[in-house]
Amino acid sequence: MYNYLLTFRSLTYGQRAQRAVQSIGISTALMRTPKILSENGCGYCIKIKEKDLEPALAAMRKIHISPINTYVKNEDGSYEKVMA
Questions:
Q1: What is the residue range of 78's domain?
Q2: CATH code of residue 76
Q3: Count of structural domains within the chain
């Protein structure tokens, strides 16, 4: 199963997004955005499972937060941007 990384510009936005997603019963992991994906050299992301992507995005929209970018982690460890 693929893992998605939803990136945010700050720890605060990452934490708010995580709380919104967890409030609907989806488990997430909050972490620093990998340097290879960070355009500004900093940022945070939440990691979610493939099946949880759409409900997670819907939960975030309800609180007016959206990720900067969304990436999927491929089996070889590389990342692919799937939406901005």
A1: 3-83
A2: 3.30.70.1530
A3: 1
Sequential DSSP letters for 47-82 = EEEGGGHHHHHHHHHHTT---S-EEEE-TTS-EEEE
The token pair at 18 is: 């995580």
Chain segment 30-62, per-residue pLDDT in tens: 999 988 887 766 799 999 999 999 999 999 999
**Pairwise CA distance, residues 83 & 72, whole Å:** 10
The b-or-e profile of 22-43 (16+ CB within 10 A means b, else e) is eeeebebebeebeeeebeeeeb
Tens-place pLDDT, residues 10-31: 999 999 999 999 999 999 999 9
Above 80 in pLDDT, residue 81? yes
* Contact assessment for residue 55 and residue 3, using Cβ atoms and an 8 Å cutoff: no
Q: What is the pTM of this model?
A: 0.88
